[in-house]
Each structure stands twice: as structure tokens, then as C-alpha cells.
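Record type: monomer structure entry
Structure origin: computed from sequence
Chain ID: A
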Amino acid sequence: MTSDTTLVLLKITAVLTALLGVLQAVLGFLLVGGTWVGAHGTIGNTTVVVALVTAVVAFVWMRASANKGLFMHAVGVLVLAVAQVALGEMELRLVHIVVGVLFLLAAVALGTLAVRKPGMRLERIDPARLQGH
């Protein structure tokens, strides 16, 4: 996988994570009326999987670009997503809402940072050129 392909995949998965976070927030507000509980849980689990894929792709991008920022942010979003699902399963509503807001902010920030990340061409450097020959 080339670095350009990795960056495009990172942008797609990060934006998808952010969109799922926005959808979760909307469904969370609809839950106040007592509906959409099943959809909220299913999309929450899907969000964790997409956040995991985003973290893996961010790791590959980090290895190709030596940029750790997006990887660390993606891991943070993944941790928040897992905590969010666990809190929802434990029915700790107030903490679930607070962590949900934090997740939404982090996921949207990750998507924004990934989209704004400029592509870069990685070229192989000839070792002889480094030695001055």
C-alpha cells in the first residue's frame, strides 16, 4: 500500500468515524423520547469497529510518514468509543452522555485533521547519496 493510498484511506475512515459520532449524537437526543435504543447500540458497536480500522490505518500512516499525531488521536478516539459502548451497556446514562460529547468532539477533530493533512510523496533515498559519494 502506498503512502498516498494510506492517507486517502485514513481520511475516509476518520470522516466515517466522525459521521457515525454525529449520527450517534442525533440518535442519543431521540432516545430522550424512548425510541431508537436498538439502532443507537448497533451504530455504537459499528463506530467502535470503524474507529479500530481508523487507528490501524493511522498506524500504517505513522510508519510511512513518521507522523505520530494522527495515530495518537485515532487511538484516543478508539479508547473513547470503547468506553462509550461500555458505559451504555452499564446504563450509566449521565457519564455516557458526557463521554459521548467528548467522543463527538474528538471524532470530528480527527476527521478534520485527517482531511486537512496534505499528501506527501515518500521517495527512497540512495544510501550512497547520504555518504557523500
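Annotation 1: Residues 3-117 form one domain.
Annotation 2: The chain is about 80% helix and 0% strand.
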